Amino acid sequence: MARKAVAKTAKSNVPELSKEQELAAYREMLLIRRFEEKAGQMYGMGLIGGFCHLYIGQEAVVTGVTMASQKGKDAQITGYRDHGHMLVMGLDPKGVMAELTGRQGGLSKGKGGSMHMFSNEHRFYGGNGIVGAQVSLGTGLAFASKYRGDNTVSISYFGDGAANQGQVYESFNMAKLWNLPAVYIVENNRYGMGTSVERASGQPDFSKRGISFGIEGEQVDGMDVRMTYDAAKRAIEHARSGKGPYILEMLTYRYRGHSMSDPAKYRSKDEVSTMRAEHDPIEQVKQRILEKRYGTEESLKELETEIRAIVTEAADFATSDPEPAASELWTDIYAA
Amino acid sequence: MPTILMPALSPTMEEGKLSKWLVKEGDTVKPGDVLAEIETDKATMEVESVDSGVVQKLIVPEGTEGVKVNAPIALVLGEGEVPGDAEANSAQLKPVDVAPVKVESTDTVPAAPAGVTPVAILEAASDPDLPAGVEMVEMTVRQALNEAMAEEMRRDKDIFLMGEEVAEYQGAYKISQNLLQEFGPERVVDTPITEHGFAGLAVGAAFAGLRPIVEFMTWNFAMQAIDQIINSAAKQLYMSGGQVTAPIVFRGPNGAAARVGAQHSQDYSAWYSHVPGLYVVAPYSAADAKGLLKAAIRSNNPIVFLENEILYGSTGLVPKVDDYVLPIGKARIARQGKDVTIVSFSMGMRYATQATEKLVAAGVDVELIDLRTLRPMDTKTVIESVKKTGRLVTVEEGWPQGGIGAELSAVVTAGAFDYLDAPPTRVTGKDVPMPYAANLEKLALPNVDEVIAAVNAVTYRS
Ligand SMILES: Cc1ncc(C[n+]2csc(CCOP(=O)(O)OP(=O)(O)O)c2C)c(N)n1
Ligand SMILES: [Mg+2]
């Protein structure tokens, strides 16, 4: 079974993060958590429509990987569970939340929605609704890096479900064939909607999915930001140094339903509460910060207050900002 | 066959040079023996003997240029054959050497068997008569679709359902509720998220004689699989000269749901209706959903069955008969009238029906037609109607260019030109990707007021 790495958290060989890194990771993850909780509430109030896929539980994946990347230079791309990626990459929480509510100040002027947000400035390429499509697109971003010789890397995130799409393997082959600087992050949260990995995958160890293409892979405890950071550093370095693609399977977990409506019959309440109680990525960092005296209960409380203020501001903006002008219906269809 | 013909080296070769004979008259040859060498300006080739026999005559001397493809070049007599047979055979072949394989451009394409357009190859039967006093049961479109699948699966063990979340989850939109419980995991199959793969797999299973129902979680995701639907399923019968059928139903919700944005809100009606070899069904009412899905499952053709998420919960009356099967390819006249013809299907019928109610109240005698099937399209019913009303308004959620409304406009322009009192007019989704913002999404979709405005325009009321 492919869950060993999660059980290994307390083992030795765990890379250490510096005080600054621990504090930064805590802050980023807390921002995602509080932002997503707020989004969930706003969905319940009818302020957000359609699909809304929350990232709660998986925060350590994108946080560790992004810390290991060159922010703003390396490209990142993911699917529809994308709010956390944008927050960690430094996109404005107000713009993200306003996109969720479909307002003119949203990152896509309200025209994209929860699943479709992008930022050229931050080199974030979405925000993609078709399961698996981001893997080929991300490989294309890597192709462009190599073509230009700009020494950047492309990081593509996709789920355990997406890992079964054919185009993932077409992309793996090209990435290795042309030694593209592509890092593939499989966010294995154990389920694709209501289907567990075991019910969907002949080979449930996704870190091995590159073997026949000659691509190295690792299974990583995706709940521990030290591990995600450390593995991502290796993978990114591998890609940046011209050795070609690399696969990281992050063993993680989503606490919430797939989207907002989810029958939650495919897993036990117990499974969810055990993961929350024993592997919560934020709690783990918090404990270390306190143990190592990188911070105190008070300083962390202050941080919490600061984060809540950011989220409240984003929510206020997203509810008071007007809807896009009707004329926006007809813009942005063709480039000038 | 004793006559050796000039072979072709390529599909475009019309003539060549017989450069050398490697046998003489009177030689005995076996299969595989090289008889001659021929050449064109691009290539050379050896002509082998297919049968054994004796070379009786070399008709074309070696070194001859411009020998036409298919012209007899030699006579080889098999054992027991007499020269007379060979002469007779070569005489029979006479027309061949004056008729090269090329198709003359003056050849005419034979007309399609029947109907106004080549597509309307079947004259669909009318809906079956219902027994007097038949009980009508109120149910949702969702239940109707579920019943249709369950009834057909009970009838025929070769029918199975596959798709994402169809089994244990009971269907992403609950259309397959309880089917796993009744038919088991061999016949209700959860797939990985691999649309291209499982669509192809199902088509292959259909080639082998099974009757798959493939559920796409939504038709948006079937774009991953469209190659297998069109290149493998739709064309198979034709490519195999009528040998291999692909009895398969591809079904799932099509069109806009609510607030799910550009990649999840698209109407594929026109896309699939373009493709010969497919039947495309798009029901609106619960009764039609049931009767047409049963018909689709029974059909020996690949069927694209377009449902609509918003309509899943809407209710209607479904006749309680043992086997409610409706004809594919037949439109339903939802309301008879004489002033204007409104044609729609699926979700468009909701706008059209509401507009019709208002228009009738305002004194406009609307004839409302629900196409139900988009291919083959019941053009006859539409043309007959327009001949009566002189006006056509079409309603659909899809984009205007190349849409169902565009097709209907061409159909009535060709079939009822002299009867038209106004230009055929389309109400469609706006020509933009679907926006997420609530206000923009509303503007992007067609609505009741737009249908009323179109009717007012073609009836010159203001
Ligand atoms: C091509 C395609 N098929 C199906 C869907 C519907 N869908 C959306 S998310 C999802 C599950 C994906 O699971 P996974 O890749 O594990 O990512 P997770 O949601 O767990 O983050 C499915 C089936 C889709 N969006 N695109
Ligand atoms: Mg998953």
UniProtKB/TrEMBL annotation, chain A:
EC number(s) on file: 1.2.4.1
Catalytic activity: N(6)-[(R)-lipoyl]-L-lysyl-[protein] + pyruvate + H(+) = N(6)-[(R)-S(8)-acetyldihydrolipoyl]-L-lysyl-[protein] + CO2
Domain Dehydrogenase E1 component: 28-326
GO terms for MF: pyruvate dehydrogenase (acetyl-transferring) activity
Keyword Oxidoreductase found: yes
Keyword S-adenosyl-L-methionine (UniProt): no
Pfam families in alphabetical order: E1_dh
EC supergroup of this enzyme: oxidoreductase
GO biological process: pyruvate decarboxylation to acetyl-CoA
Cofactor(s) it depends on: thiamine diphosphate
Keyword terms of this UniProt record: Oxidoreductase, Pyruvate, Thiamine pyrophosphate
Oligomeric and partner information: Heterodimer of an alpha and a beta chain.
Known function: The pyruvate dehydrogenase complex catalyzes the overall conversion of pyruvate to acetyl-CoA and CO(2). It contains multiple copies of three enzymatic components: pyruvate dehydrogenase (E1), dihydrolipoamide acetyltransferase (E2) and lipoamide dehydrogenase (E3).
NCBIfam families (UniProt xref): PDH_E1_alph_y
Identification of the protein by name: Pyruvate dehydrogenase E1 component subunit alpha
Native species: Devosia insulae DS-56
Gene: pdhA
Automatic annotation (TrEMBL), chain B:
Alphabetical list of SUPFAM superfamilies matching this protein: Single hybrid motif, Thiamin diphosphate-binding fold (THDP-binding), TK C-terminal domain-like
GO terms of molecular function: pyruvate dehydrogenase (acetyl-transferring) activity
EC number: 1.2.4.1
Catalyses which reaction(s): N(6)-[(R)-lipoyl]-L-lysyl-[protein] + pyruvate + H(+) = N(6)-[(R)-S(8)-acetyldihydrolipoyl]-L-lysyl-[protein] + CO2
Pfam family, one: Biotin_lipoyl
Ranges of residues in domain Lipoyl-binding: 1-77
Cofactor(s) this protein cannot do without: thiamine diphosphate; (R)-lipoate
InterPro entries, sorted: 2-oxoA_DH_lipoyl-BS (IPR003016), Biotin_lipoyl (IPR000089), PDHB_mito-type (IPR027110), Single_hybrid_motif (IPR011053), THDP-binding (IPR029061), Transketo_C/PFOR_II (IPR009014), Transketolase-like_Pyr-bd (IPR005475), Transketolase_C (IPR033248)
Domain of life of the organism encoding this protein: Bacteria
Keywords for this protein: Lipoyl, Oxidoreductase, Pyruvate, Thiamine pyrophosphate
GO biological process terms held by the UniProt record: pyruvate decarboxylation to acetyl-CoA
UniProt function note: The pyruvate dehydrogenase complex catalyzes the overall conversion of pyruvate to acetyl-CoA and CO2. The pyruvate dehydrogenase complex catalyzes the overall conversion of pyruvate to acetyl-CoA and CO(2). It contains multiple copies of three enzymatic components: pyruvate dehydrogenase (E1), dihydrolipoamide acetyltransferase (E2) and lipoamide dehydrogenase (E3).
Subunit structure, as described in the record: Heterodimer of an alpha and a beta chain.
Protein name: Pyruvate dehydrogenase E1 component subunit beta
Source species of the chain: Devosia insulae DS-56
